[in-house]
Amino acid sequence: MKIVVIGATGIIGKAVVQALSPRHSIIQVGRSGGEYQVDLASKNSIQNLFEAIAPFDAVVSAAGEARFNPLESLSDEDFQFSLSNKLMGQVNLVRVGLPYINDNGSFTLTSGVLTTEPMLGSAAISLVNAGLEGFMRAAALEAPRGIRVNVVSPPWVTETLATMGKDVSRGMPAARVAAAYLEAVESQRTGEVLDARLF
Hints:
This is Short chain dehydrogenase. Keywords: Oxidoreductase. InterPro entries: NAD(P)-bd_dom_sf, SDR_DHRS6-like, SDR_fam. This protein is α/β, with parallel strands linked by helices. It has one domain: Rossmann fold. Helix 1 packs across helix 6 and helix 2 packs parallel to helix 3. The longest helix is centred in the middle third of the chain and has 22 residues. It is globular, with a radius of gyration of 16 Å. The two termini are 22 Å apart.
């Protein structure tokens, strides 16, 4: 399959590319790196990307930024940034991508463990993740031509914790997280949240 990986230069994205590459043709997309670039906060940028690389069989998003701050210090701008990037950016991958993806193709988006296991400072991220999962379930019902839509929910990733100077013992290596993306792309699942800890 011809698979577009958004966020291909990130920690999870690199692992997803490595997992998919042996059996598929991968187009690597990043914010500033990769073969192509995209700004998830810009619908026009997404449109231009898909026009340049279509048609394709699958889109995997391991991208999207959201702000992590205590509730009382989260500003309107923090919420808007989070909604525009991680939520609407990934929603628009599906909305804009539908005309460009092949029959029986798939979209795999990324939420995260903070949807169901929130922590101090995660209000904006938890909001975005929950919204994305709700969108996915509804979009999967309406997607035409056998197109599937799923979300992978990763836990804290070992490599991310290491870069933050945090305890890595509670993390999961990106290579293991990538197994859930492989399942989402290669199976017939649709309308599901795949908890990466289960793969």
